[in-house]
TrEMBL record, chain B:
SUPFAM superfamilies: ATPase domain of HSP90 chaperone/DNA topoisomerase II/histidine kinase (SSF55874), HAMP domain-like (SSF158472), Homodimeric domain of signal transducing histidine kinase (SSF47384). Transmembrane segments: none annotated. GO terms for molecular function: phosphorelay sensor kinase activity. Its main location: membrane. It comes from the Bacteria. InterPro entries: HAMP_dom, HATPase_C_sf, HATPase_dom, His_kinase_dom, HisK_dim/P_dom, HisK_dim/P_sf, Sig_transdc_His_kin-like_C, TCS_sensor_his_kinase. It is found in: Membrane. It catalyses: ATP + protein L-histidine = ADP + protein N-phospho-L-histidine. This is histidine kinase. It is an enzyme of class 2 (transferase).
Amino acid sequence: MKILLIEDDREAASYLIQALDEAGHVTHHATDGETGYAMASGMDYDVLVVDRMLPRRDGLSIIESLRAEDDKTPVLILSALGEVDDRVTGLRAGGDDYLTKPYAFTELLARIEVLARRSSPSEAATSFQVGDLTLDRLSRKVERGGEVIMLQPREFRLLEYLMKNAGKVVTRTMLLENVWDYHFDPQTNVIDVHMSRLRSKIDKGHATSLLQTIRGAGYMIRD
Amino acid sequence: MTNRFAQLWRTTTVRLTAIFVLIFVVFSVLLLAVISYQSSIQIQRQQAADIDREIRQITKIDERQGFRASIIAVERLSRQPGPGIYFIGDPTGQLIVGNVTTLPPEVLLEPGSYTFNYDRQRPGDPDSTDAPEPPPPQGNAMVRSVVLSSGLHLVVGRDVVERRGFTAIILQSFLYGVGGIVLLSIIAGLINSRRVLARIDSINVTANKIMSGNLSERIPITQRNDEFDGLATSLNAMLDRIEQLMQGLKEVTDNVAHDLKTPLTRLRNQAESALRDSAHEEDRRKALETTISESDKLIRTFNALLMIARAEAGAPSGAFADIDVSAIAADVAELYAPVAEEEGMELVSEVAPGIRMRANRELIGQALVNLVDNAMKYYRANGEDSSGKITVTAREVGGRVLMEVADNGPGIPAADRSRVVERFVRLEQSRTEPGSGLGLSLVAAVARLHKGEFRLEDNNPGVRAVIDLPA
């Protein structure tokens, strides 16, 4: 995947570039807003990672200009401003996701990979399949090996989100934001409890475990 | 000195005085105009009545005693000093006796009333015959002419210039009066302004002292109990509040320093132990993992502090929206029910549907999460053997939205209830539980932000935490 990182903190950037490289991604780097905007509009990237406060040109204005030019490249905004209204302004400017500093690299990586998937057809698919597990979004029916699994509405949304991003790591915060639509600190391991319930429903009695816990990062569904 | 006067001129009192003096002068002049007009009309009427009376007398003399007697009477009258004008002439209009030499011809042609200018020179005056003669002064006459029964022409009148002199006297006295009042007003205004200026100066002096760092300084209050004392009292109350807030801020800073320094020290120690040469690969890994989880904890504490600060500063109204409180309470209950169950507790939701209000969705959600989390922590810390039960309630009672999280745990002693809401306060039995000690202070800050209150009530047994907001 080709990523453009627009970030003025050189130390943080070089760490990110190295870590993204280890994860198998090519990362270009711009240290100020003007250069970043020129690079973003001149080349094709899969994902843009844009810091909000940049020298020479503000991160949000870069995104607004790109969107005005009908550039739909997914953008992840990085910011030290983490209040709800800051997030809302960021997303309104055309950002696709918003991550508050300081963040864990696993969180950033998971979000970048999910964002790159945005433009793929799975976003609009009406059903998902992972191994012998199928989920039909229209009839809201879940089956594994031909056997119907009864899920609560929230469990259905949880599984739907995981299957939409099958093969990718999703973090606990991503689940809280996308499945429950909350951006607050859950204080405890609430997501883990919900995941273990979901796992017992879909994996119990089957030889292969589809729902996997990725240590230090989050969860992933794959066969 | 000039500076002092410039400053004085800028004061409101001086300006007000100037405006009032101006208004007074304008009204005085108007009044003067009315009075002088009225009095000149009065004098004119008086003079017309005098003229009529004299004409009647002479007419009577002429009828009863003949024309000689009337000529003698007119001669006598014309010798008297004063504004009187007399003329008696033969039927052709030639002067027989009188104190005016020339008359406009129409006066004698037609009987009636006339006004005209004339040379004020009195024939028969002993002075007038003596040279050198000054040019005769102009007079303005109001006369009536009649033809007597003997055929003689009689003209009687008054010099109106005299009347004007009277008006001048009124004007003069008025000007002195107005001038005096203007002068007195200016003096009174200046004195008053100096007094006002002195009061304001005392406020300024205090403000400067406070700005230079002495926050305990207060504005002196006099015994007069006037509007300046009212202002000073309000300002002093404001200063008290500011000082109190500063004190609070200092305490918070001290607490933050303490609660952040401790985990930072642990963080540093962990990193050092990972760097030790003797450390095994496994130990290093563990140390680094602890480092990360410690720094995550720090970030959470920091975020909680920021959130409280934002809520207390009054979040921007853009973050407020019309939200479904019932849905949030139900979501929180649903989110935590499995967690409570794993801990051997029961989480019950008693949420009335359709409660809506203008609020910050994330902050209300976070506040409820903190309350539920708190209830579970207390349950764990006390190792209750009876089955724990947490009830999340949302209801609307008489224009108030009440969100409650109740438990049946050991409860909080009444004496500690207000203290646990303070920042970083953790009761002894919960010291071992993870948590920043900021949970309830955030709830309190969120309640205040929504113009409501947060309180802890006795649930018999247990605690009922209530967020009470105006709908």
